[in-house]
């Protein structure tokens, strides 16, 4: 099967995903049978109202959380329903994560944050730190601490760390949330290029600029996919 065959195995594959949360007597069904696939070369956006399950879905796809039912495969390997240590290892190998809250460690420089992200996958496809800094146009800020960066620089530093192991899949939760137009465009261009280079990108977003780089948009409502449009 060729990579450009629409039936080729997706790089990110979540099937029949359920996630229940129990708080006291109450049970919330955050996901109720979500199916999501992102193929090589694709950027897919997930939208939906507050509480529809977007963050829960992203956490399950990243192996940060376990679905109550269904299965997640990344790069052809099952990441769900494994011990935490194994999920961490697979995550470091296959997944780059960008969270709104940021993923950088405060007391480490941008350069050391990227090194740390690389070290998480001991045998991985490490990209040179200088190349990563260059790609996000932050070579001149390599020694800065995260809190010394502007919002746009911080987002790009997080992106460099997420790309450090050349992941098959990038999962991003509102990656351009607080950014002005120029910074937003720079981050989106890097993400779009990732997909064009044959990886897969999944974005949870409300931004129309971010939606414009997506090949497909998936809408969640009450923990279910309600439709899909190109
Ligand atoms: N750890 C948790 N414990 C209990 N309920 C949770 C937990 N995490 C999420 N939920 C519930 O699951 C549902 C989906 O939440 P989720 O955060 O995935 O939605 P979302 O679409 O990302 O929302 P938003 O756009 O507001 O961030 C909500 O009803 C939420 O209250």
TrEMBL record:
GO cellular component terms listed in the entry, alphabetical order: plasma membrane
Keywords, alphabetical: ATP-binding, Nucleotide-binding
Residue runs in coiled coils: none
Domain ABC transporter: 12-230
Gene3D superfamilies listed in its UniProt record: P-loop containing nucleotide triphosphate hydrolases (3.40.50.300)
Keyword Nucleotide-binding appears in the UniProt entry: yes
Family: Belongs to the ABC transporter superfamily.
The protein, known as: ATP-binding cassette domain-containing protein
């Amino acid at each position: 099967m060729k990579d450009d065959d629409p039936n080729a195995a997706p790089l990110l594959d979540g099937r029949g995903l359920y996630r229940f949360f129990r708080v006291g007597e109450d049970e919330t069904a955050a996901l109720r049978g979500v199916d999501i696939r992102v193929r090589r070369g694709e950027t897919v956006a997930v939208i939906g109202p507050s509480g529809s399950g977007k963050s829960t879905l992203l956490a399950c796809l990243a192996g940060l959380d376990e679905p109550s039912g269904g299965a997640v495969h990344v790069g052809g390997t099952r990441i769900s329903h494994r011990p935490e240590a194994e999920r961490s290892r697979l995550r470091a190998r296959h997944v780059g994560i960008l969270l709104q809250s940021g993923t950088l460690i405060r007391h480490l420089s941008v350069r050391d944050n990227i090194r740390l992200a690389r070290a998480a996958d001991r045998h991985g496809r490490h990209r040179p730190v200088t190349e990563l800094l260059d790609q996000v146009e932050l070579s001149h800020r390599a020694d800065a601490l995260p809190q010394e960066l502007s919002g746009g620089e911080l987002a790009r530093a997080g992106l460099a760390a997420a790309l450090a192991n050349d992941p098959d899949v990038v999962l991003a939760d509102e990656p351009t949330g607080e950014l002005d137009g120029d910074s937003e465009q720079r981050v989106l261009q890097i993400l779009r290029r990732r997909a064009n280079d044959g990886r897969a990108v999944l974005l949870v977003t409300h931004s129309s600029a971010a939606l414009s780089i997506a090949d497909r948009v998936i809408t969640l409502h009450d923990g279910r996919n309600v439709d899909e449009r190109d």
